[in-house]
Amino acid sequence: MTNESSAPVFFSRALYQSIVDHAHSVHPEECCGLVASDQTGTPVRVIPMTNILHSPVRYQMDPVEQFSVGKSLRLEGMSLWGIYHSHPISEPYPSVVDINLAYYPDVFYLLTSPVTTPPSLRIFQIKDSKVTEFPLILKEVD
Fold first, then answer.
1. What string of pLDDT tens digits covers the 142 residues of the chain?
2. Measured between alpha carbons, how far is residue 50 from residues 56, 59, 102 in Å?
3. How open is the CA angle 17-127-85, to the nearest 5 degrees?
4. How far apart are CA 98 and CA 46, in angstroms?
5. Top-level CATH class of 9-139?
6. pLDDT value of position 35
7. pTM (2 decimals)?
8. What residue spans define the domains of the chain?
9. Is 10 in a helix, a strand, or coil?
């Protein structure tokens, strides 16, 4: 279920391009990664992760990478803002599996599909199996 009255989320074109580039680089597998925010809560960094499943329909981040990145972000005073992945052959909307594995209710989930032109990027929060989409507004300057 989508809630169109949600407040828009601003996201830089550079971060968008990083996610899209990552999706293209591993296509037809799903890409996955993290988005970090600074102390103001502004997303400032995309961190590509390894999909250890190497699958076109599922992803699982490398746990060693994930632990290392989490530690580095904390040391830099940054926070986990979002988790992204791609749907290489379908629309970028959370699947039942995505919803069931959404363990972080306070972060954004970003989904892209490299098969659309231009590549789409959609943003959601998933809390208690409820999917809420937020309007995504790309901005030029970080």
1. 444 458 999 999 999 999 999 999 999 999 999 999 999 999 999 999 999 999 999 999 999 999 999 999 999 999 999 999 999 988 899 999 999 999 999 999 999 998 888 889 999 999 999 999 999 999 986 4
2. 13, 9, 18
3. 25
4. 20
5. alpha beta
6. 98
7. 0.93
8. 9-139
9. strand
Query: How many whole angstroms separate alpha carbon 21 and alpha carbon 125?
Result: 23
In terms of phi and psi (left: phi > 0; alpha: psi -120 to 50; beta: otherwise), the region of 128 is left
Q: What is the 3-state secondary structure (H, E, C) of the chain?
A: CCCCCCCCEEEEHHHHHHHHHHHHHHCCCCCEEEEEECCCCCEEEEEEECECCCCCCCCCECHHHHHHHHHHHHHCCCEEEEEEEECCCCCCCCCHHHHHCCCCCCCEEEEEECCCCCCEEEEEEEECCEEEEECEEEECCC
Query: Do 32 and 57 meet the contact criterion of CB atoms below 8 Å apart?
Result: no
100: its two tokens: 């069931």
Cβ count within 10 A of residue 89: 13
Q: Token digits for 26?
A: 């591993």
- pLDDT, position 114: 85
